[in-house]
TrEMBL record:
Keywords: Glycolysis, Oxidoreductase, Thiamine pyrophosphate
Pfam families: 2-oxogl_dehyd_N, E1_dh, OxoGdeHyase_C, Transket_pyr
Protein name (record): 2-oxoglutarate dehydrogenase E1 component
CDD domains reported in the protein's UniProt record: TPP_E1_OGDC_like (cd02016)
């Protein structure tokens, strides 16, 4: 194509759609279009800079809005003399269309309170592009605008303003995929953002609004002043969810997992999920059964039910949620991924995640970004999430929106994954329902996240005991005069002749009557439905004796066969020389010719569990190879021809039709990833689910998940979970952030037999511990203080026989070859320090001191420990020895257990580092000095 041909023939109005598409590609990436087009568009830009009296963006508000919407465009049309007037105006019309698609939301009617001053966007005015009143009735090609191929400028403007400047404001022009943008345009522009619902649908929307408002009014009257985090002002959420569920059923969705904080939660529980009002009233009156160690407040409770749709039943689950707002997001995603795995739902066509957010929290909490970042990854994707933001424009009562974020909209963080965002006025429930349909259909079509920003208000304070007028007088003067969304919509339907006033009044009375009876008027709720895919949790809920030994050994023949499969590398697959040596050694280990190291024992634990029918899921930042170069579950071919580097995972090739083995090198996140794995484990008790920290200290970044879910979820909500956390722990001179997994924090959280805290010191112990986690008929979180340097310690080895015939020992006793009668001291310890104590004792030929390894710190193995110290009748003192400072580690928790088992004539002492604000020193010389000092102290004559 020559440049003269382009200038002379291709700029006619009939080619407008083609020009627009090429220009759009040019704006996104100039190098993606042909050279002639690139030169031409560059010429337009240069001439704009030379002769235009306006800058391309001549308004601060426009610049901010364009940046927010991802638009980069020369706004004012250059006066290019080689283009005749008609063609110049045609291109101007196309630019005007493009601007409305990207910036129209900034002049949309989104705020029910009318508080926000709309941005002045000159680029939405035809005059900005040289179009005048005289052009209004001229007919132009509409390009890719959905509708007639040719229309007058007046008609085009009407389509654009109805579509993009009404009750719906769309943000999607930053999306790279032209297909996705065109799909959104077809849906919005095709309907002009007007759903055109039938009378029947309008009746149903009003009924759902009446239910939403009716519950809040009823609770407000009956339980005056009690906290409920009212949904008044955002009642449109209920018809939104109702439509979403029924549309999901029509599309074949079988399960929806929802997560939300406390705002409007009670309303969703009753009016969406179908919780019986009588049950809710009992919670207000504190008459519910006290069957949990602690329980939780009513607005943190979860619930599950089923909804009948014309196309089938949809199971609903609302996740339990603490007050930490957005922390439930990754938990829901993990639960969804587990359900999809059970249903073999690889695309997310059968299980849908729905997350309901607050505006300030969505913009303010980092776990939102972390969870969004998981959405398109291989190990954590769920086929797209529907995000719904209850945007009450205030966050919490004393906040000023200007202090809540640095972005134009609370939703801007979602643009990082190119999720489309649909802002909608909560006082226009038909627009809200239309957006719900649009969002769901987009998710199902493209399997990507999508965001609905429902702009509404909050009638009461942050809670019902709060007085918002104190700090928000202007906003609450307007809110106090607002009649409510239900009333506004009822008035609209009355004006349209759809209903009469008595119809609206009858709906109110019918709902109040149902509340008085304590029943739920939602006829779509199916209370007796039992899904064929439901997991049977009964085996894990029965009483179980903690110290009961479970056979975890596996026949020697099976171990050797699996070892062969683990070390059988495909022909032509070139291993790295260091990895090749590790695999060769593992072959010898599998034959019994070399003692087992940690990597091989752990691999055999997974292999035998897979043989027993248990899937395995392992994730962490270096889980495939292992942070300490020990695991090598994923092998990489060193002959790499392209970026698609071939890998081989032996644990996936043990035998035909084996359960899944999934190992994931996660993104650099602790909070979201650990929350995800917790959600997964609470949904799938028959799969070994492990999260491994790169270093144990890094679990600090996920402390909210540990405190509010892992440690307390069963006590608060009855949520049983078998998640394993591997936290590399040990003092090796690597400084404060690479030493301690903060053992003391986990022990402080121990109560009610809620978690297990173990410190295995041999490969066989790790093997049996992992197997015990699945074979034993209980599911409790397992915290493993896993090794670092001990992975290659010459003394920390095991035999195949120990794997075949042993089990996990909560206490490893002293060797039998000691003279028990001469023992005067017992040193009790856990982990790596044992080998240093043992080396010191051997070096100094000490015969009268015994060393006991405590491998399970909680639940404390009282019987095993008592039996061991009873062997030493003449021991006068017991020493607890640990690497950690005295204010950290196990000392403060363990001393009470030790005292409980000591004789009156025995004394308790300790050998440890001095208390410290930092978990470890940062200087190797200082580390070695203090390490040697505490070892010597453990053997010192006087304690």
């Amino acid at each position: 194509m020559s440049k003269p041909l382009m200038d002379d023939t291709l700029l006619s109005g009939t080619n407008a759609g083609f020009i627009e598409a090429v220009y759009e590609e040019y704006l996104h990436n100039p190098n993606s279009v042909a050279l002639a087009w690139r030169e031409y568009f560059d010429k337009l830009a240069n001439q704009q800079n030379q002769i235009s009296t306006k800058p391309p963006v001549n308004n601060v508000a426009t610049a901010t809005a364009m940046k927010s919407s991802g638009i980069e465009i020369q706004a004012a049309l250059p006066e290019v003399m080689s283009i005749d007037s008609d063609d110049r105006k045609q291109v101007a019309v196309l630019q005007l269309i493009n601007m409305h698609r990207g910036l129209g939301l900034n002049q949309a009617n989104l705020d029910p309170l009318g508080l926000k001053q709309q941005l002045t966007i000159p680029e939405l005015n035809p005059a900005h592009f040289g179009l005048t009143e005289a052009d209004m009735d001229k007919v132009f090609n509409t390009g890719s605008l959905v509708g007639p191929d040719r229309a007058s400028l007046r008609e085009i403007l009407q389509i654009l303003r109805e579509t993009y400047c009404g009750s719906i404001g769309a943000e999607y022009m930053y999306i790279s995929s032209v297909e996705q943008k065109r799909w959104i345009q077809a849906r919005l522009e095709g309907q002009r953002s007007n759903p055109g619902f039938s009378i029947e649908v309008k009746h149903h929307i009003l009924e759902r609004l009446t239910a939403a408002e009716g519950l809040e009014n009823y609770l407000h009257t009956r339980y005056v002043g009690q906290k409920r985090f009212s949904g008044e002002g955002n009642e449109s959420l209920i018809p939104l969810l109702d439509n979403l569920i029924h549309r999901a059923g029509k599309a074949g969705i079988q399960q929806i997992v929802m997560g939300m904080a406390h705002r409007a939660r009670l309303n969703v529980l009753v009016n969406t999920l179908g919780k019986m009002p009588a049950d809710l009233f009992r919670e207000f009156e504190e008459k519910q059964p006290q069957d949990l160690p602690s329980g939780d407040v009513k607005y943190h409770q979860g619930f599950s039910s089923a909804i009948k749709t014309p196309e089938g039943i949809v199971r609903l689950a609302l996740a339990f949620n603490p007050s930490h707002l957005e922390i439930v997001n990754p938990v829901v995603e993990g639960s969804v991924r587990a359900r999809q795995h059970l249903l073999n739902d690889k695309l997310g066509d059968r299980v849908l995640p729905v997350l309901i957010h607050g505006d300030a929290a969505f913009a303010g909490q980092g776990v939102v970004m972390e969870t969004l970042n998981l959405s398109q990854t291989r190990g954590y994707g769920t086929g797209g999430t529907v995000h719904i933001i209850i945007n009450n424009q205030i966050g919490f009562t004393t906040s000023d929106p200007r202090d809540s974020r640095s972005t134009l909209y609370c939703t801007d963080v979602a643009k990082m994954i190119e999720a489309p965002i649909f802002h909608v006025n909560g006082d226009d429930p038909e627009a809200v329902v239309m957006v719900a349909e649009l969002a769901f259909d987009f998710r199902m079509k493209f399997h990507k996240d999508v965001v609905i920003d429902m702009v509404c208000f909050r009638r009461l304070g942050h809670n019902e005991q709060d007085e918002p007028m104190v700090t928000q007088p202007r906003m609450y003067r307007i809110i106090n005069q607002h009649p409510g969304t239900r009333q506004c919509y009822a008035d609209k339907l009355i004006a349209e002749g759809v209903i009469k006033q008595e119809d609206a009044d009858n709906l109110i009375q019918a709902y109040l009557d149902a509340m008085d009876e304590g029943v739920n008027p939602n006829k779509a709720v199916f209370y007796d439905y039992k899904s064929p895919y439901a997991i049977n949790w009964e085996p894990f809920l029965k009483p179980f004796k903690w110290n009961k030994r479970i056979k975890t050994g596996v026949a020697m023949q099976v171990l050797k066969q699996l070892a062969i499969r683990l070390t059988d590398i495909p022909e032509g697959f070139k291993l790295h020389s260091r990895v090749e040596k590790i695999i060769a050694d593992r072959r010898l280990m599998g034959k019994g010719e070399l003692p087992l190291d940690w990597g091989m024992a752990e691999s055999l634990a997974y292999a035998t569990l897979l043989k027993d029918g248990y899937p395995v899921r392992l994730s962490g930042q270096d889980s495939g190879r292992g942070t300490f170069f020990h695991r090598h579950a994923v092998l990489h071919d060193q002959i790499v021809e392209d970026q698609n580097e071939p890998i081989y995972i032996p644990l996936r090739h043990l035998y035909p039709d084996q359960p899944d083995f999934v190992v994931i090198d996660s993104m650099l996140s602790e909070e979201a990833v650990l929350g995800f794995e917790y959600g997964y484990a609470t949904t799938q008790p028959n799969e070994l689910v492990i999260w491994e920290a790169q270093f144990g200290d890094f679990a600090n970044g996920a402390q909210v998940v540990i405190d509010q879910f892992i440690a307390s979820g069963e006590a608060k909500w009855g949520r049983v979970c078998g998640l394993v956390m591997m936290l590399p722990h040990g003092y090796e001179g690597q400084g404060p952030e690479h030493s301690s997994a903060r053992l003391e924090r986990f022990l402080q959280l121990c109560a009610d037999y809620n978690i297990q805290v173990c410190v295995p010191s041999t490969p066989a112990q790790m093997y049996h511990l992992l197997r015990r986690q699945m074979i034993r008929p209980i599911r409790k979180p397992l915290i493993i203080m896993s090794p670092k340097s001990m992975l290659r310690h010459k003394e920390s080895i095991s035999s195949l026989d120990e794997l075949a015939h042993g089990y996990f020992y909560p206490v490893i006793p002293e060797a039998d070859n000691l003279d028990l009668e001469i023992i005067k001291r017992i040193i009790v310890c856990s982990g790596k320090i044992y080998y240093e104590l043992l080396a010191y004792r051997n070096e100094h030929d000490i015969k009268d001191i015994a060393i006991i390894r405590l491998e399970q710190l909680y639940p404390f193995p009282h019987e095993e420990f008592q039996a061991e110290i009873n062997r030493f009748n003449n021991a006068k003192d017991i020493i607890w020895c640990q690497e950690e400072p005295g204010n950290q580690g196990a000392w403060h928790r363990i001393q009470h257990y030790l005292l409980r088992h000591m004789r009156p004539d025995q004394e308790l002492g300790y050998a440890l580092r001095a208390s410290s604000a930092s978990p470890a020193v940062g200087y190797m010389a200082r580390h070695k000095f203090t390490q040697n000092e505490l070892i010597v102290a453990a053997f010192r004559d006087k304690i």
